[in-house]
Predict the structure.
Amino acid sequence: MGSLSVLYNIPALQAEDQLGLTQTALNSTLTALSSGQRINTGADDPAGLAIANGLEANITALTQSVQNATDGVSELQVADGALSQITSLLNSAISLATESSTGTVSDTQRTALQAEFLSIQNEIDSIGSNTTYNGQAIFQGTTPTVVYMGDSSSAGINLVTVSFVAVSAGSLGLTIADNTLTTATDAQAALLNINAAIQSVAGLRGDLGAESNQLSAAVNVMNVQITNLTNAENSIMAANMGEETSNLSKESILQQTGIAALQESNQLQQNVLKLFQ
């Protein structure tokens, strides 16, 4: 049987230490349950936190890269829509040139057809000059659009260059001075040029479509990467709610028994007073 002492209450100190450990574990469990995260501070899992932060950086970069690529697709869609309008105008020009090519049309009628053809040429020039995306002219044949895609590491960077050529009636071979419908002969020559312009526009739209498909494919790949990385981060950071709930019950019981043990340890020293009775 141990001796009675009033200098140090060792059982009480031991109970207090254990109660402090229990309280720390209980606080950690409550934090995990309230946040849903297993790691809430660097002390919880230093290595795991470093890995999770790296994964989160990659996810953030890839998420923005998806938006970059989506913006690129949108720009290409604007360009394709403009070229589609030009194709419609050229089809109208085909009709005018075909009508002017026949000998049953009068000079007065050809003058009217020429005026309408001139209007189509001017409209093509207008589309080429005024088609913009985010305030930038598309069909001016200047600086290409470089779409940046990748994760947060230099090894995962993918740059896709989207180039737009200058588009106008002249660039399509329909210069106003050299293409007229004022005579049947001129109209027949213009008809050949208009058909060639339609093929040129079709080629441009094909190139834009290929670039759009490339960006869309990249978006699909990056979305899969984001899903996989998010799953990996979740496996590191997410709290196991079943386990944490079980820990909460255990630590709550330990806290109550620890408090009771501390009270009992403090009560032991009261026995010293009985020696004076």
The radius of gyration is 39 Å. Residues 46-101 form the longest helix (56 residues). The chain has a mean pLDDT of 85. The longest strand covers residues 145-150.
